[in-house]
Amino acid sequence: MNYVFNPAPTVSVPVLGTSARFPVHRIYCVGRNYEEHAKEMGFSGREPPFFFLKPTDALVVVNAGEPGVMPYPSLTQNLHHEIELVVAIGTGGKNIKAADAHKHIYGYAVGLDMTRRDLQNEMKKQGRPWCIGKAFDASAPIGAITPAPAAGAIANAEIYLQVNGQDRQRSNVSKLIWNIAETIEHLSAAWELQPGDLIYTGTPEGVAAVVAGDTMLGAVAGLQSITVTVK
Ligand code: MN
After folding, report:
1. pLDDT by residue for the chain (231 residues), tens digit each?
2. Domain spans of the chain?
3. How far is ligand 1, taken at its centre, from the CA of residue 27, in Å?
4. Which of 16, 21, 75, 82 is deepest in the core (most CB within 10 A)?
5. H, E, C per residue of the chain
6. Distance 63 CA to ligand 1 centre (A)
7. C-alpha of residue 200 to centroid of ligand 1, in Å
8. How far is the CA of 152 from the centre of ligand 1 (A)?
9. Centroid of ligand 1 to alpha carbon of 203 (angstroms)
10. What is the CATH number of domain 12-230?
């Protein structure tokens, strides 16, 4: 194939236990999927799941045991952390039933849905898309993927985020309003899922601002945790 310029390289995420990498196709994110977070954002916590996307080159890939760095983004005075369980799709499909969802999951990772909250709030107020608040460069740090068989009881895993060693978010994946299987059912009714798709499944309560110099530790029990410093 002859291109008018060199195409961007395939974005990929390391997988624990193998040198082979997970090539990323799309990045879906679920909005307001923990009740206490929905409440802190001013909503009831009871509504159908909704989705937005980030570009694959928003990923900040953090290798196991290595520190990650993300630049403080432009245009914001209120950069928020959102710790999230990420589901990595290995087998595509559309109209996947919740009961079959596990067959499509390759593995899981820890992710951060970093958010320019001031810009997102302004877009919400104006009824405009969230892209500028959510889908900016380096807005999606992610750690190494743990294959599903090695991930343990992910549906009941503790999920937490600390900033400079202090707890900011602490909850449990069991508190998802729409669990992993239900999320895949809803998502695959709207899009045909592809191998390489990532799903950021939503954040629990406790979202707050970070500033340059802060270091975030994000963890989900049973998965590789990540450390990301804002620079
Ligand atoms: Mn989120």
Report:
1. 899 999 999 999 999 999 999 999 999 999 999 999 999 998 876 788 999 999 999 999 999 999 999 999 999 999 999 999 999 999 999 999 999 999 999 999 999 999 999 999 999 999 999 999 999 999 999 999 999 999 999 999 999 999 999 999 999 999 999 999 999 999 999 999 999 999 999 999 999 999 999 999 999 999 999 999 999
2. 12-230
3. 12
4. 82
5. CCCCCCCCCCCEEEECCCCCEEECCCEEEEECCEHHHHHHCCCCCCCCCEEEEECHHHEEECCCCCCEEECCCCCCCCEECCEEEEEEECCCECCCCHHHHHHHEEEEEEEECCEEHHHHHHHHHHCCCCHHHHCCCCCEEECCEEEHHHCCCHHHCEEEEEECCEEEEEEEHHHECCCHHHHHHHHHHHCCECCCCEEECCCCCCCCEECCCCEEEEEECCCCCEEEEEC
6. 22
7. 7
8. 23
9. 5
10. 3.90.850.10
Q: And the tokens for 227?
A: 């450390």
Q: How many residues does the chain have?
A: 231
